[in-house]
UniProtKB/TrEMBL annotation:
Record protein name field: Diaminopimelate epimerase
Self-association and partners: Homodimer.
EC number: 5.1.1.7
Binding positions for substrate per the UniProt entry: 11, 62, 72-73, 162, 195, 213-214, 223-224
Catalytic activity as recorded in UniProt: (2S,6S)-2,6-diaminopimelate = meso-2,6-diaminopimelate
Record flagged with keyword Amino-acid biosynthesis: yes
Gene label: dapF
Species classification: Bacteria, Pseudomonadati, Thermodesulfobacteriota, Desulfuromonadia, Geobacterales
Enzyme class: isomerase
Keyword set includes Disulfide bond: no
Family matches, as InterPro entries: DAP_epimerase_AS (IPR018510), DAP_epimerase_DapF (IPR001653)
Length: 278
């Protein structure tokens, strides 16, 4: 199988061009290629596929083999791959994902390669039934208490096609993400598990985020997570609607626009290509 390794803000995936390649068992392939000792090393596997309703289609598998509806850092890399490798020739493209059809705007460098992508991530879905979460299906979850081990956290939850649970902390750099992340990911409140974002508010326009991803553990960045966090910051009255988010692997520019959609702008980088037996 031919592949291309790409990363967006340090959130790295193995990308396969399914305009050319066929992947029989993507869940098994994701587990194999993601392994950082016995495989290529990545947070998961992303398939770049033809679509009947958009310019390109993305399917995304976590490093544990589970499939997610959406991946924010991944969709920017899919757009870069599609443009740089001649699948599309426009700078505004559409992509079919498990979270619907998204519109992306591509920004190129001097060599006409994509270096930055702005994605309309759509609106945050805020009710329990949309996330999904147990409890009153039509209720929003904004700063609701959740007991974990011997601590109580106030959680704000949103779906960007995939589920997110946002928790504000004082010192995100020293927060024990590995201790609380997996317990919240697998908490009975979330029937499809959840991604967990820990966030420190720096100012009305700047935040820091660390992410415990469903199916992958702590990663250097999460684009859908950053979108859910943007909504959570505003819903809790902590920031403006336009913020700069510092993640472990880089920065994302975020905006919850007046049109109700969340816009994410960030880098997309091709690292190397190769072939692997699967
Ligand atoms: N890192 C990705 C999200 C992966 C989400 C995945 N872990 C899930 O199961 O939903 C992003 O940039 O949006």
């Amino acid at each position: 199988m031919k592949f291309t390794k790409m990363q967006g803000a340090g959130n790295d995936y193995v990308y396969v061009d399914c305009f050319k390649e066929k992947v029989q068992d993507p869940a098994a392939a994701a587990i194999k290629v993601s392994n950082r000792n016995f495989g290529i090393g990545s947070d998961g596997l992303i398939l770049i596929m033809p679509s009947e309703v958009a310019d390109v289609r993305m399917r995304m598998f976590n490093s544990d083999g589970s499939e997610s509806e959406m991946c924010g850092n991944g969709i920017r890399c899919v757009a870069k791959y599609a443009y740089d490798h001649g699948i599309v020739s426009k700078k505004e493209i559409t992509a079919e994902t498990g979270a619907g059809i998204l519109t992306l705007q591509l920004f190129t460098d001097g060599g006409n390669k994509v270096e930055k992508v702005r994605v309309n991530m759509g609106p945050p879905r805020l009710t329990r039934k949309e996330i999904p979460m147990l409890g009153n299906p039509d209720e929003k979850v904004v700063s609701a208490p959740l007991n974990v081990l011997h601590s109580t956290f106030n959680i704000t939850c949103a779906s960007m096609g995939n589920p997110h649970c946002v928790i504000f902390v004082d010192d995100v750099g020293n927060f024990p993400v590995e201790k609380y992340g997996p317990i919240i990911e697998n908490h009975e409140l979330f029937p499809r598990r959840t991604n967990v974002e820990f966030v420190q508010v720096v100012s009305r326009t700047e935040i820091r985020q660390r992410t415990w991803e469903r199916g992958a553990g702590e990663t250097l960045a999460c684009g859908t997570g950053s979108s859910a966090v943007t909504a959570a910051c505003v819903l809790n009255g902590l920031t403006e609607k336009k913020i700069l988010n510092h993640l472990l692997g880089g920065d994302l520019e975020m905006e919850w626009s007046e049109d109700g959609n969340i816009y994410m702008t960030g880098p997309a980088v091709e690292v190397f290509s190769g072939e692997i037996d699967i």
